[in-house]
């Protein structure tokens, strides 16, 4: 009598996901406080991070590190008290209260999006990267010292304000480039900040009445400004998506190449948005049938992480294929192939295939199946 085991029997939840590392206390109960941002910025342990056009600010010179292996990156940070004065002068900037880490320092983090702040170059001779070298120059590990390490703090004067110069004072990297090189804590901060900032910049008017909106609830909501329509409260839109690694009874994985991918060697796993009124498991089975013509049996949850490009929440599954004949749709998916772990490793070595990026959930799903890090 032969005994067979499900190919999902030893599947484990994904232990690490680069965009799901946040450990900050959101302090959601404080979001309704009328002066939350101003009071938080006045606290000495508050730090501010900046976003712009869906990217995060890092110290000048660090933007080049995103494409390198085994390097560390950190956020550029500004003291809260200085930014409070900046916000008064730039109402088009959007402040977002990310939360607190508690403890003895009770550090708070506020993100400020400067996408709509006019860019003004600074004519001073001081280089931006000079502000991030040694503590003697008025900084501490990339933190701009209170009072203005750049010579700010005395109003507009001879210099434009920090928010106006931010484009040139810092390097800007997207989340996919920053998170794999950052600490877990700063990766979490960047994920929340970029997710919220993208929403604020994409939705500038009430989707019901068309009136302009204003940031509310510490930046985690928007308030419609139309008194006649009740000044409704609006919340960020999240678009659920499923992503599934399909395995057969022999332990092979089905990897596919999509038409939209510019890299011809990139192979990943099945993914797609959840339809209205659809549950996650049904979405995983439907996407597999639509993209590669495979009928799925058991579906097992692996984990989730946000993917703010612009507003997705990726929910990962591993699924057992009941059929193995591949029929790609030819529009979204142009090629799909079954591979064993050894065949996949050989394909990576020869360059015939390349793995998904380090910030993607797909990479860690493949690693779970492969049994080792890529």
From TrEMBL:
<dbReference type="InterPro" id="IPR000086">
    <property type="entry name" value="NUDIX_hydrolase_dom"/>
</dbReference>
<keyword id="KW-0520">NAD</keyword>
<dbReference type="GO" id="GO:0006742">
    <property type="term" value="P:NADP+ catabolic process"/>
</dbReference>
<dbReference type="InterPro" id="IPR020084">
    <property type="entry name" value="NUDIX_hydrolase_CS"/>
</dbReference>
<protein>
    <recommendedName>
        <fullName>NAD(+) diphosphatase</fullName>
        <ecNumber>3.6.1.22</ecNumber>
    </recommendedName>
</protein>
<dbReference type="Pfam" id="PF09297">
    <property type="entry name" value="Zn_ribbon_NUD"/>
</dbReference>
<dbReference type="InterPro" id="IPR015797">
    <property type="entry name" value="NUDIX_hydrolase-like_dom_sf"/>
</dbReference>
<keyword id="KW-0479">Metal-binding</keyword>
<dbReference type="GO" id="GO:0005829">
    <property type="term" value="C:cytosol"/>
</dbReference>
<dbReference type="Pfam" id="PF00293">
    <property type="entry name" value="NUDIX"/>
</dbReference>
<dbReference type="InterPro" id="IPR050241">
    <property type="entry name" value="NAD-cap_RNA_hydrolase_NudC"/>
</dbReference>
<dbReference type="GO" id="GO:0019677">
    <property type="term" value="P:NAD+ catabolic process"/>
</dbReference>
<dbReference type="InterPro" id="IPR015376">
    <property type="entry name" value="Znr_NADH_PPase"/>
</dbReference>
<dbReference type="InterPro" id="IPR049734">
    <property type="entry name" value="NudC-like_C"/>
</dbReference>
<keyword id="KW-0378">Hydrolase</keyword>
<dbReference type="GO" id="GO:0035529">
    <property type="term" value="F:NADH pyrophosphatase activity"/>
</dbReference>
<feature type="domain" description="Nudix hydrolase">
    <location>
        <begin position="236"/>
        <end position="367"/>
    </location>
</feature>
<keyword id="KW-0460">Magnesium</keyword>
<dbReference type="GO" id="GO:0046872">
    <property type="term" value="F:metal ion binding"/>
</dbReference>
<comment type="similarity">
    <text>Belongs to the Nudix hydrolase family. NudC subfamily.</text>
</comment>
């Amino acid at each position: 009598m032969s005994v067979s085991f499900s190919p999902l029997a030893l599947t484990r939840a994904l232990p690490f996901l680069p965009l799901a590392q946040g450990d900050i206390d959101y302090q959601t109960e404080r979001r309704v406080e009328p002066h939350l941002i101003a009071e938080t910025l006045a606290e000495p342990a508050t730090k501010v991070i900046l976003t712009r056009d869906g990217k995060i600010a890092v110290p000048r010179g660090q933007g080049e590190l995103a494409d390198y292996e085994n390097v560390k990156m950190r956020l550029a940070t500004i003291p809260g008290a200085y930014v409070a004065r900046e916000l008064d002068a730039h109402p088009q900037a959007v402040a977002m209260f990310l939360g607190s880490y508690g403890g003895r320092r009770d550090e708070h983090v506020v993100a400020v999006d400067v996408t709509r702040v006019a860019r003004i170059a600074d004519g001073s001779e001081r280089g931006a990267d000079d502000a991030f070298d040694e503590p003697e120059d008025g900084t501490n590990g990339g933190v701009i010292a209170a009072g203005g390490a750049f010579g700010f703090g005395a109003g507009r004067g001879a210099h434009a304000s920090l928010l106006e110069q931010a484009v040139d004072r810092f390097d800007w990297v997207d989340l996919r480039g920053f998170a794999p090189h950052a600490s877990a804590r700063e990766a979490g901060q960047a994920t929340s900040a970029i997710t919220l900032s993208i929403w604020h910049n994409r939705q500038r008017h009430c989707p019901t009445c068309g009136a302009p909106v204003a940031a509310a609830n510490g930046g985690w909501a928007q308030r419609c400004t139309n008194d006649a329509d009740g000044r409704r409260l609006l919340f960020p839109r999240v678009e659920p998506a499923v992503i599934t690694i399909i395995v057969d009874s022999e332990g092979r994985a089905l990897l596919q190449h999509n038409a939209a991918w510019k890299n011809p060697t990139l192979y990943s796993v099945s993914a797609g948005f959840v339809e209205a009124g659809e549950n996650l498991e049904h979405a995983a089975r439907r996407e597999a049938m639509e993209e590669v013509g495979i009928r799925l049996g058991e579906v097992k949850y692996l984990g989730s992480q946000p993917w703010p490009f612009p507003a997705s929440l990726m929910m990962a599954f591993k699924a057992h294929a009941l059929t193995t004949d591949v029929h790609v749709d030819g529009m979204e998916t142009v090629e799909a192939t079954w591979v064993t772990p050894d065949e996949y490793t050989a394909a990576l070595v020869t360059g015939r295939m390349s793995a998904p990026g380090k910030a993607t959930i797909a990479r860690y799903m493949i690693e779970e199946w492969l049994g080792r890090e890529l």
